[in-house]
């Protein structure tokens, strides 16, 4: 009789719990999240076995609404996101539009990205299966947002590189390039960039150069040119290194940002042209002194007179040298500006040979007021890349007014 009574009591308790769990579901749907969460929490602590799959899903959504969506502090975010990953599995966003598990993990990943906490990010990335993430991009006014799958690969590629997990960085970046069909904000370029950085550390410099040259088709930034030059330097190909050094020096970026470029140039030139190398070392020191930054022992040993550094004069000497170097084998060309786009960032020049050449505003070296249709100019040319048409182009550079 006792056993029958105990079973009856247990059944009644279970029925009462189930009734309250159903009530919790109703409360959640009525957006009474606090009351719903209170019921879910109490029964999960006392009777976890009585929560079915749907109970855990609504329990997770209650947690998300109150502790993750607008979390008050990081401890709260991490604690409750961890709980959600224990309660429910990751949903397949290719079949369902939302998943509390995935939303919570991405909240954590965004927080860790803001904190540059790449090591802890890898722990959370391991909780996601990218095959269960969708490739649906978001759209705002004049902007496209990365899909969940692309965001995962962006986080993973960056985190592995920052943590020095170079093989993993290469693997996940290659998987991104192979599996994603659409890329936002040139993310495909950045995957190649991180592959190249990883390959260089692993002393696979020729492979790194292949990736970097793909990057340089789209991004002509000084740091890309510097990275290519550095790989050639490691491979003892000084002439090729100098070709890319030229492009890096002649960008309009602040030299404080590019300061280590001049240290690299010193190292590349010190055996073949000690005098020119010393010019760059002196400029490197001048920039470092302005920011009160430490100077490497290799440069300190040169015993450069810090009182004899005219930073403006050094800059002009260096710019003039590399400009002459870049265009030394090329004949100056002439033409007329035929179009300047409304945004003022680029346009077209028609050469005297009747060729239409694209140019960017930063390559116009005179007063921008003269960058207008009908202006007669002189210029040199260099290879560019039209990503929209996926082909190489010839662009006008180093443009000046011509009398």
Pick out the low-confidence regions.
none
Order of secondary-structure elements: HHHHHHEEHHHHHHHHHHEEEEE
How much helix is in the residues? 55-70%
Assembly state (oligomeric)? single chain
- For the record, give the distance between the C-alpha atoms at the N and C termini, rounded to a whole number: 113 Å
Return the structural class. alpha+beta
User: What would the average pLDDT be, to the nearest integer?
Assistant: 92
The total of beta strands comes to 7
**Largest sheet report:** 5 strands, antiparallel
* Strand proportion: 5-15%
Summarize the structure.
The chain has 403 residues and is of the alpha+beta class.
Descriptors:
five-stranded antiparallel β-sheet, 16 helices, two-stranded antiparallel sheet, elongated, alpha+beta, 403 residues
Write up this protein.
By secondary structure, the protein is α+β, with helices and mostly antiparallel strands. Among the domains are: 238-329, no CATH class; 333-401, Nucleic acid-binding proteins (OB fold (Dihydrolipoamide Acetyltransferase, E2P)). It has 16 helices and seven strands. It has helices at residues 2-29, 33-46, 53-68, 74-87, 100-114, 118-125, 148-162, 166-179, 187-201, 205-218, 222-234, 238-249, 259-269, 274-290, 297-300, 311-327, and strands at 138-140, 143-145, 333-340, 346-351, 356-360, 376-386, 391-401. The strands form two sheets. A five-stranded antiparallel beta sheet has the order 5-4-3-6-7, with no helix packed on it. Strand 1 and strand 2 form a beta hairpin. The protein is elongated and about 105 Å long.
């Amino acid at each position: 009789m006792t056993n029958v009574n105990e079973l009856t009591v247990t059944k009644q308790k279970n029925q009462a719990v189930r009734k309250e769990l159903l009530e919790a579901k109703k409360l959640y749907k009525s957006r009474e999240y606090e009351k719903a969460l209170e019921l879910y929490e109490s029964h999960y602590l006392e009777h976890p076995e009585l929560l079915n799959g749907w109970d855990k899903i609504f329990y997770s959504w209650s947690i998300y609404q109150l502790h993750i969506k607008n979390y008050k502090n990081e401890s709260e975010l991490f604690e409750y996101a961890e709980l959600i990953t224990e309660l429910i599995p990751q949903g397949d966003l290719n079949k369902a539009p939302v998943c509390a598990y995935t939303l919570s993990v991405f909240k954590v990943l965004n927080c860790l990205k803001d904190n540059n906490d790449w090591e802890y990010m890898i722990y959370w990335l391991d909780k996601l299966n990218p095959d269960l993430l969708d490739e649906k991009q978001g759209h705002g006014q004049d902007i496209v947002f990365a899909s969940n799958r692309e965001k995962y690969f962006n986080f993973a590629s960056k985190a592995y590189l920052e943590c020095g997990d170079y093989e993993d960085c290469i693997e996940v970046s290659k998987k991104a390039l192979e599996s994603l069909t659409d890329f936002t904000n040139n993310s495909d370029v950045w995957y190649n960039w991180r592959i190249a950085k990883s390959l260089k550390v692993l002393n696979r410099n020729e492979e790194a150069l292949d990736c970097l040259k793909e990057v340089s088709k789209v991004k002509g930034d000084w740091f890309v040119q510097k990275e290519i030059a550095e790989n050639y330097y490691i491979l003892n190909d000084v002439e090729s290194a100098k070709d890319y050094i030229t492009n890096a020096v002649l960008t309009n970026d602040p030299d404080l940002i590019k300061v280590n470029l001049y240290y690299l140039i010193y190292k590349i030139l010190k055996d073949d042209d000690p005098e020119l190398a010393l010019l760059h070392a002196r400029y490197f020191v001048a920039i470092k002194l302005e920011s009160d930054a430490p100077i490497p022992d290799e440069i300190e040993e040169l015993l450069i007179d810090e009182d004899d550094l005219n930073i403006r004069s050094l800059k002009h000497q260096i710019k003039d040298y590399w400009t002459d170097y870049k265009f030394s084998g090329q004949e100056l060309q002439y033409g007329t500006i035929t179009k300047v786009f409304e945004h003022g960032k680029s346009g077209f020049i028609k050469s005297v040979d009747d060729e239409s050449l694209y140019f960017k505003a930063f390559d116009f070296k005179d007063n921008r007021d003269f960058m207008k249709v009908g202006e007669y100019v002189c210029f040199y040319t260099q290879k560019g890349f039209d990503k929209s048409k996926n082909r190489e182009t010839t662009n006008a550079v180093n443009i000046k007014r011509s009398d």
